[in-house]
Amino acid sequence: MKTQRAADIAVGCFIALFGIFIIYASTFITGGAAHRLPPRTFPMTVGILLLLCGGGLALKSWSIREADLAISWPDREGFRTILVMLASLACYIALMNPLGLPVATFLYVAFSIWYLKRSKWLMAIVISLITAVVSYALFIRLLGLSFPEGFLFD
Amino acid sequence: MGFSFDYLLQGFATALTFQNLFWALVGCFIGTLVGVLPGIGPVSGIAILLPLTTVLPPTSAIIMMAAIYYGAMYGGSTTAIVVNIPGEASSVPTAMDGYEMAKQGKAGPALAISAISSFVAGTLSVIALTFFAPMLAEFAVVFGPPEYFALMFMGLSLVISLSGRALLKGVISMALGLTAALIGQDPLTGASRLTFGTVTLNAGVDFISVIVGLFAISEVMINVEQRITAISELNIKNWMPTWADIRQCTGAMIRSTAVGFFLGLLPGCTPSVTTFVAYDLEKRVSKHPERFGRGAIEGVAAPEGANNATSTAGFVPLFSFGLPTAPSMAVLLGGLMMYGLQPGPLLFAQNPQFVWAVIASMYIGNVMLLVLNLPLVGMWAKICKIPFYILGPIIVFCAMVGTYSIRFQIFDVWVMLLFGVIGYLMRKLGFPIAPMVLASVLAQMLETALGQALLMSQGSPLIFFTRPISAVFMALAFLSIGRGIWSQVRAKAPEVVTDDAEY
């Protein structure tokens, strides 16, 4: 999917399939038959819209061959950085309940800064420590929000 | 229910309490910061902070949220002028002349004139808002469900048709936003929809998670990919413009206010559109158009004025009709609903203290922003120097905290991550994001209005065409769709989004 045309064809097909899936899923919505607008009508309409527009996008892009544009995907290094950042965010979310907000925040911020700028490991530790302390003091203690505190504060 | 000085004075009395002044100042500060910092815009800023403001009274919370929005317009010019990095599409015209001025050693006057122009436009627009909004609200009292459905339908159609030559992509974006919002219980019958038998999905997908993912997380991904490190390099010494500079820009400020305000009343006419129109107009009326693009100070004043006028104009349809014209307004609408307030004509009748306090706070907020931006312009320029490897993880942390605090469920944060990836792909593949945001916020109101309208007409959709006001809205909606289809057919070119500014 290096060009806009190829991407639009692929995405259009995917959206059309997704529309079919939504239409299929809408058939299982029950109840409200007596209503003027039964609960399945809106999702079904949206599914049909996705199917039509997805198919339309794929067909239109397929038919236009001239004036194709390149998509500015990142290079290999850029892709790797994005994937590592997404994986670290996923770990942050997964660790939030078992470790608590302050510890998970410390680990996430420290790792991310270190990964994005390897030479600044000391700065990574200091900033992540400050962020973790602020997250605990501000959100858990001061505002009293129900964030998981983690094993350190049990 | 219309405009009255008594209401406005009462609004000032509420807005001038210590608590509301404090939160307005906090909002102005955060707004300017959000405008200055790359990687985070007003939509993300408001969406992240919205759940955290539930500890505040509704008036203080909305005063702060509104201040973040118009405050971001003041801060947005800093990176454009200092380092030629327009953080948003609306700052591109500012960068054209602002950066040229900076290169000539006039970065200080350029930053100062952008703050002054923002103040003039912001204040004039709030005056217009004060008179326009209650007038329109009075007109909107006669609106029933068919009119509301038609109005929202028209708003969505305009937002889609204004997203460049990407009509199909705009409709897909809107349909995806609707799909996300339809997950959970049907508002009219309580039936579970698209939940696949899971209890977690029964509570639905919160629009804050969707918006924070689409804007904050995807923006961080884009910045990580571009490996933005340090931002600012210029050293600025002389901060103040001369009186001659101000006199030279007076006409530009007033003209750009008019352009920004009146165009800003239309759904989809975001600052990224109006700033270009104002810049172009200024170039046309100038006796020396050749100076534009080479450091003309009016070239900074005009887009900055239009920027602020448009952002304030968005409050007119929001307060009068409950219609958001841009993603930021959609988040504010969601915020109002979170507090149990229904924007629209009844807001002025049922909650006059609230609505007039918010309007009065905008007058005060503009003064605060001028004070924050003129003497402290050097500080804001220095903030640009924060490297992205520090800023990025902290933005993600704020996004995480904001999203989790909606319902204190980890599920919402996973949704944020998912929509972060979707937002990144949408930007790369040229899908407009604004229709998705507006649809995800408007879906429930749209469906409820449709259901009630069909109930009124005993199932006949003709009700939308037989009532005069809804017929006008429907006609405008179909005209804008027709215009979009026509321009697509004529262009015979790939689907390309003009821009997708974060407003």
What does this entry look like structurally?
The complex is a heterodimer of chains A (154) and B (503). Chain A is mainly α. Chain A contains 5 helices and no strands. Chain A starts with a helix and ends in a 12-residue tail after the last helix. The mean pLDDT of chain A is 88. Chain B has 503 residues and is mainly alpha-helical. Chain B has one domain. Chain B is built from 24 helices and 2 strands. Chain B has helices at 5-15, 18-36, 42-49, 58-75, 77-83, 92-103, 107-140, 145-161, 167-182, 199-202, 207-226, 243-264, 271-285, 298-313, 315-321, 327-338, 345-350, 352-373, 377-383, 388-407, 410-429, 434-456, 463-466, 468-491; strands spanning 184-185, 192-193. In chain B, strands 1-2 form a two-stranded antiparallel ribbon. In chain B, strand 1 (184-185) and strand 2 form a beta hairpin. In chain B, helix 2 (18-36) packs across helix 18 (352-373), helix 4 (58-75) runs antiparallel to helix 16 and helix 6 (92-103) runs antiparallel to helix 14. Chain B is globular, with a radius of gyration of 22 Å. The mean pLDDT of chain B is 84. At the A-B interface, helix 1, helix 2, helix 3, helix 4 and helix 5 of A face helix 9, strand 2, helix 11, helix 20 and helix 21 of B.
